[in-house]
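Hi everyone, sorry if this is the wrong subforum. Our group has a chain we'd like a structural model of before ordering constructs, and none of us has done structure prediction before. Sequence below.
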Amino acid sequence: MKIVVLDGKTLVSDDLSYDALKQFGDLTVYDSTEDKDIVSRISDAEIVFVNKVVITEDTLSQCPSIRYIGEMATGFNNIDIEACKKRNITVTNIPTYGTEAVAQHTIALLLELTNHVGLHNDSVKKGEWSSGGHFSYWKKPLMELKDKKMGIIGLGRIGQRTALIASALGMEVFYHDYMKKEGVPYPYLSLEELLSSSDVICLHCPLTSENYHLINKETLSFMKPSVLLINASRGPLIDGAALAEALNDHRIQGAALDVTEKEPLEENDPLLTAENLILTPHIAWAAYESRKRLLDIGIENLRQYLKGNPVNRVA
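Answer:
Right subforum, don't worry. Here is the predicted structure as tokens:
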């Protein structure tokens, strides 16, 4: 049985290995795969693993041997699910693996916005403390989080974990979701109420056709000028040009993004020069522990499929 991993470097660096897949068949791992090479690499494969590589109906029509596709992520919009169903191809995903890491990164972004640790570290190492003649200085205002209001859009596993940490910091937490959650200790608000009353807004919702550019010129106008906006969820939830404009015009105080609509960012993207914006390269999920958990679940998904008992099945 031929097994192919099309974009292995997305998940695995020198600290992890796909070798455990060799127990199931003949394994080939590609660090990355361009669109033009997809068919030639999996035309005779039975098992295919992908993370971001797009698998279309046209690709599947040229690869009749495929029986199973393992999505090595939670989102599976890169795979034509209906085409897989028509061909009786089983598709599985990894429904949860990075809850702790993403919530932790969200809070790290928040603390960087409020405490500016990186900015002051750079300042000290440039000699500004040594030459300043005073025991203390700050290059931007610092902010306490106690009693600040955090609005979370999307109260799934990650949203709830973020809420728990924020509560431990003394923040008042409320949320908006497409439906109210039972048994959570946080008040539900309408989207407009949340946007207008929050000191910190965190996005933790999946991307759907209904919430594409949820944060746009209009919804930004609802927010306080002092608000901090954080997105460690899906890039297209935010209209990047509108956010850059709001930051540069000081209509909101600051933002931190781990995800953007186009990844990687193009060199002329307005977000790169926006004021009071922190950017990280889609790494909230990438702690070693999370990546190992993801890899282990992906391997177990294949094991259960081969036993005739598929789990985490999306097609």
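For your construct planning: The mean pLDDT is 97. Residues 2-97+288-306 form a domain with the Rossmann fold fold (CATH 3.40.50.720).
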